[in-house]
Amino acid sequence: MGQTIVQKIISRKLGGREVAPGEIVLLSPDVVMAGSNTAVMVIRTFREIGATSPWNCEKIVVVLDHSTPAESVLTANAHRLLRDFCSQHHIRLYGEQEGVCHDLMIENGHVAPGMFVAGQDSHTPMYGGIGAFGFGVDTSEMGFIWAVGKTWVKVPETVGIRLHGAIPKGVFAKDIILSIIASLGSDGCDYRAVEFSGAALPQFGISDRLTVCNMCVEMGAKAAFFPSDEIVMTHARHKHVDVASWVYPDADATYEKETSFDLSTLEPVAACPHRVDQVAPLRELANVAVHQGFIGSCTNGRLEDLEAAAAILSRRHVHPSVRLLIAPATRRVFQQAVQRGYISTFLEAGALILNAGCGACFGGHQGILADNEVCISSSNRNFKGRMGNPNAAIYLASPATVAASCIAGRIVDPREYL
Amino acid sequence: MKSLTGRCVAKLGDDVNTDLIYPGQYLKVTDPREMAQHALEGIQKDFWKDFTPGGILVAGRNFGCGSSRTQSVASLKAVGIQAVIASSFARSFYRNGINQGLPVIVCVDCCGINVGEDVVIDFDDHSVRTGTVRLPIEPYPPFLLEIIERGGLTNLGKEIVSGRYQL
Question: pTM score > 0.80 for this model?
Fold first, then answer.
């Protein structure tokens, strides 16, 4: 009986026996990622359980992101506690200068195709962009995993999404996934694994796949996958990680639901306040004035995203009524952006460059909004109050759309600027 | 655990996300007593102040969507919520609820429960009952019920580490 990608990954970890959706199994993660100031609750749980040392310190990576550098004594003390714990147990720690957890995990080769990863952040499923099975866990579960080395997994059903057609110029991965979310709904894939397939896949680079799998969380997905085609294999070889070429579904795999999208019919879009699935084409939003723009986050903070923004901001200027915040996803991305001249372009255009990190995404650190302000953001959630003020509004869009809109002072189609 | 009884202290709608349940500006708070003060603050400040301890929260579809922040479950527990009944849950909140020992009950017709009513959640009968209705609920798989009965993974972890439970 054929298996989908998630079934195959689970099956392989169980020694090859087939698994069916709905089954509850115990799996040992290949790597776990904990981090941000809330990781102190992981340590608390770990100690309360009575464990003295983690099950396997080499399989744990801790990242300080979200509120970096510390904005309060509470956060600073949390960071210190984490530093001390990681030092004591020889656990790999990425400090405040390094950037966003998920991008660091991928950039540094901690995640490989075919792995099972537990992450202390809801966007862990984005590792499926390179064919790893990952989902978010809370601090109590992370503390349990540190102590015991395993956790429970309910095998999900899989939804197959076939993509075909040529992607029009000016339509980016973010526009594509927002259009899919609009079609399936914010709980349309609740507890499902999503598998992408189809003739359009070669048009998706690694960064695009990460954006798409990241956003699948916003339609409730437990996991999301692109198969291990040549693009993923090249990435894996480049990162010197084990090349798992078998991460593709069996020909006779069974899907709960299959749907397809013709990408050639798509146009640039934005998710409107306050729901991710409330998506409108940009031409319907032409009179929406913006006060802040944000380019960054695990969704769209990579070099390719900065490149798209720089192409639009080059020799242009951010509107005088707008603040454009740009946070490179990692220190390496930041460096590369400097080397390519993107940072200069941004500064000349009047943008504000943040340190590599989560930036304005979650409303706990940088870029809080004023009452009645509108932010257009390349991040992943636009819930009421998401950026720290329930009296503000957030639109989600591609980095190109954010850049163009910050020049115009209102939401515009980036194709007018390409 | 045979059953659980509590008063319905609040009834929420669909798509109540975890930024509403526990806003991001309070992620720096990790003390349960302080966390409690921000429970459901995205909906209304001090929403929880009229809750009686041991209360039950009722909600519509897709409860707990968004971030998998620990505090979204922990803050509800800290204000004394005994269980959450919803017509459906976002997977991350459902998982976190079980793992922190907060019973999360899937009951498609829970709109039949009213604020102020006493609610019995019956794990043997697989139902939720008030004075007026008996509504079917999805039964827990046995292993997940074991986690809930022990009050969460922390307690299960203690039993494993001390050798009293074999995983």
Answer: yes
